[in-house]
Amino acid sequence: MINITGQNELFKLIGAKLEQKAECLAIGGSAMMFYGAKTETKDVDLVFIDKKPFDAVKKALFEIGFDEKKNIKVIFAHYEIAKNKPIIMEGMETRFDLFLNEVISFKITPAILDRIKEVHEFGNLIIKIISPEDIILLKCATERKKDRNDAASLIGKFDIDWEIIIKESIRQTEIGQDIFPVYLFDFLYELKEDFKIDVPKDVIKKVRKIGEKMMEDRLSSGEIIKVTKFKTK
Amino acid sequence: MGLNETAKALEGLQTADTIAKKLWISKRTAVNIIWKLRKKGLVETGYGKRKIRIYKISRIKKPDLGYKGLYEVINKNSRLKIFAKEAHRIHDHKLTIEEAIVRAVETGDFRTILAALGLFNKVKNWSSLLWYAKKAGATRKVGALYDAAKNSMKVRKMDERTRKALKKGKTKERYIIKNIKSKDFKDIENEWNVHIPFNKADLEVYKE
Questions:
Q1: pTM of the prediction?
Q2: Which of B63, B88, B92 sits opposite A122 (nearest CB)?
Q3: How near does any CA of chain B get to the CA of A61, in Å?
Q4: How far apart are the first and last CA of chain A?
């Protein structure tokens, strides 16, 4: 586990090692720590839009004593078939997950970049923090209990704009294979029923309708529907 | 009502009066609530005209990370304020006025550059400004903007050595903001061989 101070010290070290500016997005627990919604995280997740900074940060991490974990199958089984495979760097009792353009099946869209709330500069390393809405949507594609806890914490602490989440889930479905509104419905329903989180009823109803419609459309067009979530460690 | 619920109910901008009205309490009690929320780090205080206190109340105590970014430095030191879409923080060093001027030029954003002109009055270290301008390859742009600012507002006097050194810089790109030229600062444009993106009317805001 790493806290915000430890994480930022590592970012400073990476930033000092980089020869050129490298931009990336902080997602998940790392982003939540910047918002003050979490005190520590198991891994630092960074998403890169370009390959060059992705490679540069990987190299910088190697130079400060991190090693690449080769067997990522156990952690991200889904990536066996993915084009852009993530890189996992381990060291100093911390893990960095570096993604290129997409996380699991979630793609970084211009709308996500437009919603960025904070930019943190650590020398040549520039970290942009995705919005709480996008963090929640990213978490809905997994089945980990800690992701539900994180989403519950975000919903409790921020005024979540549900329309943003719904729209982005539709957009993700349009550009990918997964029907995100189905995941989202499951996720929100679970949050409301099991975690007693205040998710508006009309939001759940709307997401359910959209999900059903999308599934019907795909079925009628003869497409294969993928509704299995990703079980990650 | 607990403090967290109170913060949730009051989230956003408030004055003591609006808090009193919203919670059906006296102004004195509202001030006490603000005091309690501030103790928990959930209140930031700003001032409106006639010294009216405006409280920004949030539900979550945000960690105070790094040093002020470009927009905060500009807003603190320039008469012209800008609204930043995203918060910007710098973690590895403190942003100086000199670096902020050069960074503002690099953004290529009209409003940011216009607001950064106000920083010329706060420059303390001209050689530092020169160093950052050289690093960014923007020596002539910075020199030209200084002259434009000098025309419309009070600025610190630039020493001749810096001025000469700024002029020695090469011009890779003549436009400070792509395809925007000035109608009023032709003489400065000719002297520095770059295009000023403002007219005199744009700088009137500094005289208000």
A1: 0.84
A2: B92
A3: 18
A4: 15
